[in-house]
Write a structure and sequence with these properties.
Strand content: 5-15%
Number of strands: 7
Helix content: 40-55%
Number of helices: 9
CATH architecture: Alpha-Beta Barrel
Largest sheet: 7 strands, parallel
Oligomer: single chain
Radius of gyration: 17 Å
Order of helices and strands: HEHEHEHHEHEHEHEH
Strand order of the largest sheet: 1-2-3-4-5-6-7
Length: about 220
């Protein structure tokens, strides 16, 4: 991946995304990501917004969020694997402390989750994030059963960014995008190569133009 996504290719990919109407990136708050994002803004006039995922190897999520904020991120969310682990360890209160820490830093705060039990536990503990990142796909790739996720998320009034919607390439974009929207996702976080962006954006635009059959109101 690093051989393919060298610096010129990263900058080209970000430019293609912006040209096709994408306005927000979701990226890890680590050195390589931050340096390329700043390069894109400074040297190429890029205007893409940035939502940061906390980088576990960087240590404290709250300190990591400060770095993300200082480098232009508009929001940060607790890495889904970390949140899942804290819930399994019976430490859901620590998630609440981290979310409040993000807010004190002055940045929108989210919670990532690969398992529905993580979102359930956070709701049960009355944690108040600004948004959720929850996985959903039809092949159960790092996610709970899709219909169950959709039913639970109907009760959540916060914005929901659905991710892993293509199951790491196991699901065709048209199918994965539609299913995630139909089950209530407000936004889709999709990993793409440069040559996939135009078609994927076109698929989403066509779906939204035709209308999406969903029970959950758009957040």
């Amino acid at each position: 991946m690093k051989q393919y996504f060298n610096t010129p290719k990263i900058l080209e990919t970000l430019a293609i995304a912006e040209e096709n109407g994408i306005n927000t990136l979701l990226m890890r708050a680590d050195d390589r990501i931050i340096s390329h994002y700043n390069m894109f803004k400074k040297d190429h006039g890029g205007m893409l917004q940035w939502i940061a995922t906390s980088a576990p190897e960087q240590g404290s999520p709250i300190e990591n969020s400060k770095r993300a904020r200082d480098n232009g991120a508009i929001a940060v969310y607790l890495h889904g694997g970390i949140a899942d682990g804290l819930v399994k360890a019976g430490k859901v209160d620590e998630i609440g402390e981290i979310v409040e820490g993000f807010k004190k830093v002055g940045i929108m705060a989210g919670i990532g989750a690969h398992q529905l039990d993580t979102a359930r536990a956070c709701v049960g503990a009355r944690i108040d994030p600004d948004f959720y990142m929850v996985t959903i796909n039809r092949v159960n790739y790092y996610c709970s059963e899709a219909a169950e996720v959709g039913i639970f998320m109907r009760s959540i009034k916060k914005p929901w960014i659905a991710f892993k919607v293509l199951g790491a390439g196991r699901v065709k974009p048209q199918e994965g995008f539609r299913m995630a929207f139909q089950h209530g996702g407000d936004f889709l976080a999709v990993g793409m190569f440069d040559w996939q962006i135009r078609d994927n954006v076109a698929h989403v635009k066509e779906m939204l133009t035709q209308g999406i059959d969903r029970d959950r109101e758009w957040a």
